[in-house]
């Protein structure tokens, strides 16, 4: 990791406070196992596979929280250049617009600026992962039947952050020398959601079509595709 990137990340400049696992819990042990695989340089396709004897719901829950923290951090590093003026629409290029919808204020898909969309998204995810009825932390407490449905929705929406950052703010990422780090985060995310079929293919299309180019250090996305929620 470059010195400039370390200086930015060492500020812990997250868009939202990091969610941590309670030491001594099964979730914490799974998190350590996942991190150990990554730190050991294990192939990412292999690293995302469900460890023998572990519960899939626990494995997904650990990664949802981890991806939230990582993507939260990535967006936090470029958020000063993502404003209502620079990004009046939450999009991934001219053909992809992401509209916000929830169960409260925005009951219909609504066009918003990127920073407003991001703020609502992170707030919404925090509510989900802090809800014990959805993400139980006590040993022996079962996951609800709707857990995977919620996890898929979280991951699909988090992927849109990657799309926006890659297409609209990758110059800023490049200035920090963070291409390799962001590319690795993206690869990890992509391999995980495809391993367990956690995101619809149409959500992945904006970046998957040119994934190979972006995987190489310093590569740039030139083409964009179309999808509106």
TrEMBL record:
It holds the Pfam family Mob1_phocein. Zn(2+) binds at residues 82, 87, 164, 169. InterPro entries: MOB_kinase_act_fam, MOB_kinase_act_sf. Keywords: Metal-binding, Zinc. SUPFAM superfamilies: Mob1/phocein. Transmembrane segments: none annotated. SMART domains: Mob1_phocein. This is MOB kinase activator 3A.
């Amino acid at each position: 990791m470059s010195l400039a990137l370390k200086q930015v990340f060492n500020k812990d400049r997250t868009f939202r406070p990091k969610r941590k696992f309670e030491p001594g819990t099964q979730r914490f042990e799974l998190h350590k196992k996942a991190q150990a695989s990554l730190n050991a340089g294990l192939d990412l396709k292999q690293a995302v596979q469900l460890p023998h004897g572990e519960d899939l719901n626990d494995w997904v829950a650990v990664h949802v929280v981890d991806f939230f923290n990582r993507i939260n951090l990535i967006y936090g590093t470029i958020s000063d250049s993502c404003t209502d003026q620079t990004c009046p629409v939450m999009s991934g290029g001219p053909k992809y617009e992401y509209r916000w919808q929830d169960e409260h204020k925005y009951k219909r898909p609504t066009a918003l600026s990127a920073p407003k969309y991001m703020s609502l998204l992170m707030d919404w995810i925090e509510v989900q992962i802090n809800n014990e009825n959805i993400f139980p932390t006590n040993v022996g407490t079962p996951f609800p039947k709707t857990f995977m449905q919620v996890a898929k929705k979280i991951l699909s929406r988090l992927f849109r952050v990657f799309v926006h950052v890659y297409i609209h703010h990758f110059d800023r990422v490049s200035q920090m020398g963070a291409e390799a780090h962001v590319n690795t985060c993206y690869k990890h995310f992509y391999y995980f959601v495809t391993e367990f079929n956690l995101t619809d293919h149409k959500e992945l299309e904006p970046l998957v079509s040119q994934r190979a180019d972006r995987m190489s250090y310093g590569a740039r996305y030139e083409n964009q595709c179309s999808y509106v929620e």
